[in-house]
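Hey, can you fold this?
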Amino acid sequence: MVTVRPFHPEDEAEIVRMRKVAFGNESPDWGVQSATWWGVVAEDDAGLCGSLRAWDYHQFFGGVAVPMAGVASVTVDPHARGRGVGGALLVTSLARMREEGQVVSTLFAATPPLYRAYGWERVGALEHVTLPPAAFGWVAKPAEPTPLRHAGAADLTGIHQLYLDIASTVDGMLDRTGPLFDTAKLLTLDTVNVVDGDGGPRGFYSTNRRPRTDTLDVHDLVARDADAGRAMLAALASWSGQVDRIQLRRCDPLVWDLLLSLPGHHTTTVEPIMLRIVDLAAAVAARGWPVGLPDFAVDLDVTDEHAPWNAGRHRLVFESGKAHVEPGGSGAVRVTARGLAAWYAGAVTVGDLRRAGLLDGDAPLLDLASRAPRRLSIADSY
């Protein structure tokens, strides 16, 4: 018999062992629980056999940072696999997420079928592109001189504000606030450079040279305007002759989609991210919705056996630019937990959800609300 209970500090040694078996690393940081995460463990007759940790994040949807549980470190000991341990951890965690006010949940899935079975669906990705340094120089020169300088502690508030200004326009990005994100740690990286502007930075980028390799990692490159972006990309091109390759993490759509010139053959690393709606009513109320959205309502009949508080008939109401969920309605549009996640993220259209068997009924205005189809983008892993 498998039981699930909250994590206790004395569980750390066994969790470290299971993580080493599962992932090849120990990550011995489970010993002290804090406000930044909570965990649960599974036990069978032989002792501890599984673990899960959930980080406390806020993720942008429609320009609003929505409380999110970032699921990580889901581990099942080899002897206990195939016995429902992973599912038991997830079901117990959903109830805990709701108690914590974490209205949605995302994760990077090593085993997507497991998470789909419990209501998570693929909605976007963390992406990196790897290019030779010279490729970063394939941009037009700034219209006027755009000098860069090394960032200091006095720049950290402005750097974070610039990140927020851009990240809030990209669904899926984290707001990087709270104790998990100490902005001072940014300055421990090898290089943090800024482009100055009126009242704060116009752009910044941060890099680390990988030890004993010919690779430079660019963690963030964010620009308020095109000239700032061009100046920073040109600075990366100056690494020619010192490194063979530069890996850039997707963060700013201006830089990635409109300034960076990708050759016909290049390497992109994609880490898919999956989303689940933990509390439907709270998730709908928490996020932002498109400006100019017409007033309308859709009667839902939700199937969600693992989060039964979401199940049943609900009326999804859009009114005066906001949305809420109220009980009742005809249930004309039937939708699964996976379908809800994909719709909320705008990852696919209602028509695609219908073809996949995740939704049944006609509600074309739902695509207008979620701005489907598009994919979430995230610039942090956990």
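Oh, and this one too while you're at it.
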Amino acid sequence: MSQTEYQARQLASIIEELQSKQTTGILYVDTNINLQPKKRSRVLVLRQGQIVYGGTTLPNNQEFAQELGRKLNHEWTDSAIGLATQKAANSTSLRSLLDLLVKMRLFNWEQIQALMHAQAVLALEQILPHAGSYRLDNAIDFDLTYGEPARGLDQSKLMHEIAQRQKQWATFVPTIPSMDAVPYLQPNNANKITNPAVRKHLEQWADGKRSLVDIAEGLNKDPLQIAQSYLPWVQAGWVAIAGSNAPAPKKELPVVLAVDDSPVMQVMLKRALSEQYQVLIASNAKDALMLLHRSEIALLLLDVTMPDIDGLEVCRTVRTIPKFRNLPIVMVTARDGFFDKVKGKFAGSTEYITKPFEADKLCQLVGKYVYGEDTSTSLSST
């Protein structure tokens, strides 16, 4: 099966499209991390459009159960798994194996789902920002679901936690610019490290080749925990970050309000635009109108399809307010028909663009209306 390439920050819209199609399959993702020669590979499993698993590899049934036991510190996992495997009605079904292990009270569904939620957050966080390639395999049946009735992971909670973690990562900047920062031990300052355990760790792991994500993976830790440990070491001069150039602080960035009820699109839009704009997010019409009145909005990105009031109606409402009559409004939708574009124009939209789209083209379009930048590329024709 061939690989399909995608641009930076485009993976979120690809996942959203698979979800909208109720896709079941294994998504193998390889990402390019800055100038690092090694690709970062992750696996996502979808069942009927829901993410049910995210990790570095796709385990078999026994490996999955053994990893649960290791994380929950159950010494008797192997013998229980062996017994459950013999009794399982379907020896190839992961769900059947987990049902038996839950009945044996080795685990409960809340524990399993919590562990897989945390693992999926890390997997998504580490691949969503980057360019790369993917392939979808529909032949493997990885029948993981959680609880009764069977369900997948909560998409909104996944994206909310990723957004919260991004705020935590931002507190390390500029000392540690990102999770992909590559630390190395400063040889001239190594003798200043009085803690033998810290020095041993840095000599082994801070080699200028591994990123914080790589170090965390090798130690089976959360990269945020690794960054928290490395922060004082970098500040003390024991460790430096390869190729680190502290970015200039952003001041008075234009404000873009993005209105979309999809958590995946919210993350994608924010990541695509946050380098040049302050991005505010609203999930519904009520919150959007409140933010419009409270903030000095330079441009409105408005999803057409929303659960309460559709984007066209919101656009009409905004245009009736005198101070917003000249506000640039870009309608964002998966619909690409001529009639849909005409309806958008009649509602008062400035531009009408369709998903999926590349992050750099979105930036060009927003810049066209916020900064008056001329661009030869129009998303309205894509």
